[in-house]
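Question (not urgent): is this output format expected?
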Amino acid sequence: MKLLLRTPDMSIIAFAQALLQGEGIDCFEMDVNMSVMEGGIGIFPRRLMVAERDYAAAARAMRDNGIEVYDGP
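Got this back:
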């Protein structure tokens, strides 16, 4: 799995998941429980993961729709 997106904004995560689903790319959302425990105030970001084989297509779909792809370590 490779990290595609990291954001505390739940609307961006939902939009990204819908885009990936439309492209036929499976994704997995991480840190959901931590985000829920903090009460939804946006302190802890959620992560969206994709399979390494799908990363290039997923990143292209995100960039084409104005969503910044995570470029961290």
